[in-house]
Amino acid sequence: MTDKITLRTPDDWHLHLRDGAMLRAVAPETARHFARAIIMPNLVPPVVTGAQAVAYRSRIMAALPKDTPFQPLMTLYLTEDTDPDDLARAHAEGLITAVKLYPAGATTNSSSGVADFDKVRPVLERMAEIGCPLCVHGEVVDADIDIFDREAVFIDRVLDPIRRATPGLRVVMEHITTKQGVDYASQGGADLAATITTHHLVINRNHILAGGIKPHYYCLPVAKREEHRLALRKAATSGAASFFLGTDSAPHTDANKLLPCGCAGCFTATNTLSILAEVFEQDGALDQLEAFASINGPAFYGMPPNQGTVTLTKGAPVSYPAQIETDDGPVTVFDPMMPLHWRVHD
Ligand code: DOR
Ligand code: ZN
Predict the structure, then answer these.
(1) pLDDT in tens, 30-54
(2) Nearest CA to ligand 1 atom 10
(3) Structural domains of the chain, ranges and CATH numbers in brackets
(4) Which of 169, 285, 295, 311 is least enclosed by beta carbons within 10 angstroms?
């Protein structure tokens, strides 16, 4: 029986760090185990220019110990007014790694996102030319589309037309939650990939809604039926190059989660690696964890995998805090509803 694994240091290809007190509390949770992370730009106001991305990066580094090897990979928030020249300059200067597309109204702080996809066509064409990846929150927002169908409908109505109209555009389907997402990403060739979160490998919609409502399992895209969770597990544990880890760790204070209209997001930065090891072991795929967490992501983004390693050992259940404290109030750590036996050695 395997009781020790060593992986290249993993990266998180989709992460929310926020700002201010929240940033100071959550950034070390990711920097402890991850070498790099793609940082989401949905601050208030959003990160829309290269200069704002540089300033945000400095605030992130200031929240970490001076000698941290952690590298935040910055993104711009795509709006209908994004200037293709500013974007291209920021990309050429290495200030940003990718651009994030939020359909307006799809999720937390997405009101400045895109409502009319034709308006961003020139920006997308420029991104295809310069090889800047587009990270996509793939859900339609139409009131008449059931929330459990929004990802599948987005693929048909928005994503596929955009990809056909913009050959060469490199796209990451962020936090896929459906077997339609898995199928589309599998067939998309080298310019398409998908991230999968830790929590979507663990929960289905019953965990949110059956036996009482569980706000800490509410995130967007919302977890779907069990058959979809199983499709995500199969994709993640397959080792296939199209799939890699993007935790979408999205901290909100408990005060903001436990409201009549609570915020979407699961905070998984603290225990993600232990959960992933448990999940991959359950599926007999510990040997694919490195591909998912450390190899496929950098390969898609054209970066070398990390040189360092992390080691996990299996033993008595590991303890982790139920909440982390921030100066804005406590943030609940994702509860995977199972003991975690894999301890991460820093
Ligand atoms: O659950 C989510 N939380 N999904 C998102 O797309 C945004 C995120 C957040 O920023 O809180
Ligand atoms: Zn996110």
Answers:
(1) 999 999 999 999 999 999 999 999 9
(2) 108
(3) 4-345 (3.20.20.140)
(4) 311
Q: How far apart are CA 34 and CA 28, in angstroms?
A: 10
Tell which residue, 333, 286, 331, has the closest CA to residue 311: 286
Both tokens of 98, joined, read 């990718």
Ligand 1 pocket, residues with Cβ under 6 angstroms: 16, 42, 107-108, 137, 219-220, 248, 250, 263-265
Closest to 219 (Cα-Cα) out of 199, 246, 235: 199
- Cα gap 76→87, rounded to integer Å: 8
- Please tell me the distance between residue 113's alpha carbon and the centre of ligand 2 in angstroms: 13
Cα of 19 from ligand 1 centre, angstroms: 15
Q: Are strands 323-324 and 331-332 parallel, antiparallel or unpaired?
A: antiparallel
Please list the active-site residues: 248
Q: Are 2 and 282 in contact (CB under 8 A)?
A: no
Surrounding residues of ion ligand 2, Cβ less than 5 A: 248
pTM recorded for the entire structure: 0.98
CB 100 within 8 A of CB 137: yes
Read off the pLDDT of residues 85-142 as tens digits, 9 standing for 90 and up: 999 999 999 999 999 999 998 888 888 899 999 999 999 999 999 999 999 999 999 9
CA of 125 to the centre of ligand 2 (A): 24
Side-chain half-sphere of 169: how many Cα atoms within 13 Å?
24
